[in-house]
Amino acid sequence: MTGAKIRVLIVDDQALIRAGIQSLLSRKPDIEVVGQAGDGAEALKLVRVLDPDVVLMDLMMPVMDGVEATQRLTAAGARAAVIFLTTFRDDEYVFRGIAAGARGYMLKDVDHRALADAVRTVAAGGALLNPEITAQLLPYLGRMAASPPAPPAAPHTTARPPQAEQAELLTERERSILHMLAQGCTNQEISAALAISVGTVKNHISNILGKLDVRDRTQAALWAVQHGM
User: Are strands 31-37 and 6-11 parallel, antiparallel or unpaired?
Assistant: First the structure.
C-alpha cells in the first residue's frame, strides 16, 4: 500500500456520526473516506463496489447489524478489515464482534488520532482493542477461569497444560511486548517504550503469535489478559 491512501468505508445508522467521522479522517493525508452506509446490508453492497481497505462498522443498526454484516464479509473472504466503532462496552458485544471476524474494537469517544492509528494498524494487517475495552474483558475472563475444569489427564502422563508450555516459550522481551499489547499499545508505542525499531517489534509479535498459536494481536491480547499478564 506504499504511496496509496488507506480507503475507508464508514457504516453507521446516524448520518451525523458518519459525517463527523469522515470530517476527522479526511484531515489525515494518508486516509481517504470512499463511502458511507447506513446499515449492514448497504455496507455489503458498497464493499463489493468500492473495495475499501478498512470498514468502520457500528454494532447496532436497522436492517442488518454490524455483527451479521461482518460475519458475511468474513465468510465471503472480503479483503476489507473491520473495526467496530461503537458505544457498547459490554464484554458480550466485544466477544461477538471479535468472533465475527473484526480486527479492532474501538469506542466512539476515541481520540481522532487514536482512531486514525487504528485504521493504519488494521490496514497493515494488525489488530487492536481499545485499552478501556481490554479492561472490560476482565470480569468475563474471570468467569471463564471459574468455570469447571476439564477432565484430568490420564494418570500415566506428566505433561503440563499446553497453555503453561506456551507461556514458558516466551522470552522476557516477548512477555514485555505481550503485556503492552494487552494494554492496547501500537507498534510505534512499543517501539518507543522499549527503544527498539518498529520492524523488531513486528518480528517479536510474529514470534509471539506463533508460540501462543493465535491468529492475530487481538487474540494475543485476550490470551494475555486471561493469563494475568
Answer: parallel
Phi and psi (nearest 5°) for 216? -155, 180
Query: pLDDT (tens digit, 9 = 90+) per residue, 118-144?
Result: 999 999 988 877 766 655 555 555 555
**228 closest CA partner among 189, 179, 194, 195:** 179
- Give per-residue pLDDT as tens, 108-120: 888 899 999 999 9
3-state class (DSSP) for residue 194: helix
Residue pair 222/137 in contact by the 8 Å Cβ criterion: yes
Structural class in CATH, domain 161-226 = mainly alpha
Q: Where in the chain is the domain with CATH 3.40.50.2300?
A: 6-130
SS (H, E, C) 13-38: CCHHHHHHHHHHHCCCCCEEEEEEEC
User: How far apart (Å, rounded) are the C-alpha atoms in residues 117 and 184?
Assistant: 12
The CATH code for residues 6-130 is 3.40.50.2300
Measured between alpha carbons, how far is 28 from 34 in angstroms, rounded to an integer? 14
